[in-house]
Amino acid sequence: MNKNVLIVGTGLGGLSTGLRLAKRGYHVEFVEKNNQAGGRLNQLKKDGFTFDIGPSFFSMPYEFEELMKDCNTDMPFEFVELDPLYTVNFRGSDRKFSLYKDIDKLSEQFVDIEPDFKNKFKAYLKKCEQLYNDTVDIAIKQNFDSIPAYVKALMGVNPVHLPVLLKNFWKQVNCYFESKEARQIISLIAFFLGRTPFDTNAIYTLLSHIEFSHTGYYNVKGGMYAIVTGLVKELEKSGAVFHYNTEITDYTANNGKLTGLTDQNGKKWEADIFVINADAALFRGIVFKRKKYSPAKLAKMDWTMGYLTFYVGLDTKIEQIEHHNYFLGNNYEEYAKDVMKNPGTLEKPYYYVNAVSKSNPDCAPEGCESLFFVCPVPNLQFKKEWSDKEEIIRSIIDDFSDRIKQDISKHIISLSAYTPEEWQNRFNLYSGAGLGLSHAMLQIGAFRPKNYDEEFFNTFYVGASTIPGAGLPMAVISSKLVVERICRYQFN
Ligand SMILES: Cc1cc2nc3c(=O)[nH]c(=O)nc-3n(C[C@H](O)[C@H](O)[C@H](O)COP(=O)(O)OP(=O)(O)OC[C@H]3O[C@@H](n4cnc5c(N)ncnc54)[C@H](O)[C@@H]3O)c2cc1C
Questions:
Q1: In whole angstroms, what is the distance from residue 262 CA to residue 371 CA?
Q2: Strands 459-461 and 273-276: what pairing?
Q3: Do 442 and 297 fall within a single domain?
Q4: I need a surface site. Which of 98, 200, 270, 372 has the fewest CB within 10 A?
Q5: In the Cβ-directed half-sphere of 436, how many Cα atoms lie within 13 Å?
Q6: 248-254 and 43-46 as β-strands: parallel, antiparallel, unpaired?
Q7: Is 136 a member of any domain?
Q8: Are residues 205 and 239 in the same domain?
Q9: pLDDT score at 492
Q10: What's the CA-to-centroid distance between 444 and ligand 1, angstroms?
Q11: Closest CA to 169 of 136, 139, 135, 204
Q12: Omega prior to 84 cis, within 30 of 0
């Protein structure tokens, strides 16, 4: 008889796990707190505009290819390589850096700034590649049954990398480059992990290899949400069933086995196997009421920054920007050291702008542009009050208008915003931390909340908050790892 699986949450981790299991003959049902699938990989449609609300690009597309191969399914969406990867603008300068993967095109932009940039960059990337090759299979693509097994696997990593482990991202980049522009641009990727180059271990410079020489970044034709619609369609074809507006708040268990989950209306959901795609630490704490994840213990864990995101529909086109654009200030070190905790940084915020309608014209009415702004901010642990959000948004819009030399404020015909409060309340993210638990060394691998439950043998976890970590390709890898565990599991 086919086994019934209940998946709590329809983030990318939940959807990819569901597809892998459905294709293996399991009967899959989803319960999701929101009224549509996707989790943080979601979409907002408003006033004739379509916005991706969170992720706007991804790396390692082969993880999606592996997922489809594993499910014997054609890729249900089409991805498009980004070139340039993105642009970087500094406050007070008209110069725009376009980050090309082509090393000659990239180096041309540093000719008068960083002597011998090309050779320095090659040397830096060579080290990043070695770090990637020597750690990816050990630290990212494996299930670990215990901390000693994990530590033993880490001991297999080439010891030549040890000095890197003792540095932060910023220090490692500084070993190769002298100019502030090169240092800042190359260390920017640490922000993609939800922390800063100053509190991210140098091992993560392996991301520069992924960014510039391994796969680069990709968008999806029609917008990022096409990933979700494609997966949901495949799941429905395989018989999976979705229940929206259903939030799990309680449970019943017997003899080390989870027997049911209860939603906000008191309805009980039963299954043979449960997969939790909600945050693996928070769910253990709030729903399973585990001591290890009590409110006091959760507060002591290391969480990523929050995001103030806002979605702007304009009745005009903007020619001056590319698809992905970073707007930095001129106090990078001071800013980065403060941004996680000090709301004062919002007086002169750094931000990212995504113009989704540039490559997906259907996302805006004709002659219009849909823009998505992301501003790194302290999460709710460090800034509880967001009544000043309109003021902050206005200052970013003014700064952006100044820098592109076009006043967009009079062209705004649609505006929506999510502060960390909305991110917390919509998706159950702890303190609105955008990427959830950080990748501090004691929160990765076997130290991260496990992808199997400590008490209920029929309960598993998938997604950014368990192994391997945050980001879309990691959510897909996470589904592979958890399915490996579920298939190993013997039913009682
Ligand atoms: C602003 C922003 C920008 C980002 N940009 C990028 C990017 O460009 N590229 C990239 O690779 N990554 C990016 N990320 C990270 C990426 O979005 C996440 O790592 C990934 O989407 C996480 O997927 P997931 O499956 O782990 O969980 P989630 O997407 O968080 O899904 C979990 C689901 O569980 C549901 N849920 C929670 N609790 C319950 C409950 N009790 N009952 C029922 N349902 C519940 C939630 O509503 C949600 O739908 C970004 C994140 C943010 C916030």
A1: 39
A2: parallel
A3: yes
A4: 270
A5: 26
A6: unpaired
A7: yes
A8: no
A9: 46
A10: 18
A11: 204
A12: yes
Q: Whose CA is nearest to atom 18 of ligand 1?
A: 471
Read off the tokens for 260: 């049911």
Q: What is the CATH number of the domain that holds 165?
A: 1.10.405
**To which H or E segment does residue 351 belong?**
strand 351-355
Of 213, 247, 274, the residue at which a domain comes to its end is: 213
In the reported structure, the alpha carbon of residue 39 is separated from the centroid of ligand 1 by a whole-number distance in angstroms of 5
Phi-psi region of 121 (alpha: psi -120 to 50; beta: other; left: phi over 0): alpha
The predicted pLDDT at position 469 comes to 95
pLDDT (tens digit per residue) in 16-71: 999 999 999 999 999 999 999 999 999 999 999 999 999 999 999 999 999 999 99
Looking at residue 139, what is its pLDDT?
A: 81
For residue range 99-143, list pLDDT tens digits in order: 999 999 999 999 999 999 999 999 999 999 999 999 998 888 999
* Assigned domain for 320 exists: no
Atom of ligand 1 nearest to the CA of 434: 53
In a domain, 29, yes or no: yes
Place of tokens 């959830």: 436
Please state, in angstroms and rounded to a whole number, the distance separating the CA atoms of residues 240 and 59: 28
Cα-to-centroid distance, 229 and ligand 1 (Å): 15
204 and 227 assigned to the same domain? no
The CATH number assigned to the domain holding 448 equals: 3.50.50.60
| Angular region, 445: left φ>0, alpha ψ -120 to 50, beta rest | left
> Nearest residue CA, atom 10 of ligand 1?
471
Average pLDDT estimate for 337-364: 90
Shortest-distance Cα residue to atom 8 of ligand 1? 55
Query: Which residues are near ligand 1 (CB < 6 Å)?
Result: 8-14, 31-34, 39-41, 54-58, 247-248, 277-278, 307, 309, 374, 427-428, 434-435, 463-464, 470-472, 475
Peptide bond into 115 cis (omega under 30): no
| Number of structural domains the chain divides into | 2
CA distance 479 to 15: 9
- Give the residue, out of 140, 277, 380, 478, with the most ligand 1 atoms within 8 A of its beta carbon, to mutate for a pocket test: 277
Predicted TM-score (pTM) of this structure:
0.96
CA of 305 to the centre of ligand 1 (A): 14
Q: What's the alpha-carbon Rg for the chain, to the nearest Å?
A: 22
Residue 491 pLDDT class (50, 70, 90 cuts)? low
Q: Are residues 124 and 194 in the same domain?
A: yes
Q: Looking at the domain assignment, is residue 315 inside a domain?
A: no
Give the residue numbers spanning the domain of 202. Answer: 117-213
CA–CA separation, 325 vs 315, rounded Å? 20
